[in-house]
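Hi team,

Below is the intake form for Polymer-forming cytoskeletal protein from Hyphobacterium marinum. Please confirm the fields before the structure is written into the shared record.

FORM ID: S-0412
PROTEIN: Polymer-forming cytoskeletal protein
ORGANISM: Hyphobacterium marinum
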Amino acid sequence: MKSKAPSILSGDLVMTGSISSEGEVQLDGSVDGDVRAGSLTIGEEASVKGEIVAETIVVRGKVTGSIRARQVQLASTARIEGDIVHSALSVESGAFFDGNCRHSSDPLADKSGSTAKSSSSSSASASSAPSARSTTSTSGSSSSSSSSSASGLEMPSKSSA
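The structure came back. Fields below:
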């Protein structure tokens, strides 16, 4: 199979409707509709309002809606308001995520809704956790009031050092 060049939707593009591609899509503009792709990169100035389904997703911009992907990476500039169903999830320090997050062995086929609520301006990374609740914040302090357990769940720390 011949390798195809990625589809690039530039920053001046404003689109209403759905996008579907089996290949790689780089989105730098604004989409009001669903996006389905083999691989999707959402640029820092980009925004999507709708459902996103892909094998791999890198989010650097804003998403309002649900994300389903095998591999999800939220960059430090990401702002997510919606649910994420994933096989693997990584969150860079500074990323904002407000929604439900749930691990699934096959997120592309999985549409069920049991998830754990998460509201985060995150300094943590979650990877393949069954579900994660994150309430960490990176606003000005280098100390954290949360600690992570081995299962990926974060719970307030009550120990006094």
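SUMMARY LINE: The chain is about 0% helix and 50% strand.

Thanks, M.
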